[in-house]
Write a structure and sequence with these properties.
The protein is mostly helical. It has a domain of 95 residues. It has five helices and no strands.
Length: 141
């Protein structure tokens, strides 16, 4: 019979110094955020957390990287804007509307190569005026 030997766990030090504790905190607990290139703000947002400011560049980066666009599309097409407002909030819907009108629809128009580009009434991104009313319009065919 052969015996298998298990590795012996290494003994933890009796007491950590302040320096060692600080190094461990920096290594395992500190969250390092990147920055948004257009505005220089910290990118302190993730899939579960919206940006905390009203910066258009921060919201644009968040919507381009961290939002499930398929879910948003499904909610908008099946239940409408009011349900999306209940789920995500007024600020998210307003910023998504601006993102959609300034970046996604021009890209879609370029892909489909149509003469008439889709338009959305109101918006917060392109023209500098805040649109309080969100209207869903379909793409002209």
């Amino acid at each position: 019979m052969t015996e298998t030997s298990e590795p012996t766990p290494t003994a933890a030090p009796d007491k950590l110094t302040r320096k060692q504790l600080g190094q461990l905190r920096r290594q395992y607990m500190t969250i390092v955020y990147g920055t948004v290139k257009q505005c220089g703000h910290k990118a302190a947002f993730s899939k579960d957390h919206d940006p905390k400011n009203n910066c258009v560049s921060c919201w644009s980066a968040y919507l381009a990287t961290s939002v499930d666009l398929e879910f948003i599309h499904t909610v908008l097409t099946t239940k409408g804007v009011a349900e999306l407002t209940k789920i995500k909030g007024k600020k998210f819907v307003r910023m998504f509307h601006g993102f959609l009108s300034s970046q996604l629809l021009p890209a879609l128009a370029a892909e489909t190569d149509k003469a008439v580009a889709a338009q959305i009434v109101g918006g917060t991104f392109g023209n500098g005026t805040a649109g309080n009313e969100v209207q869903a319009t379909s793409i002209a065919e």
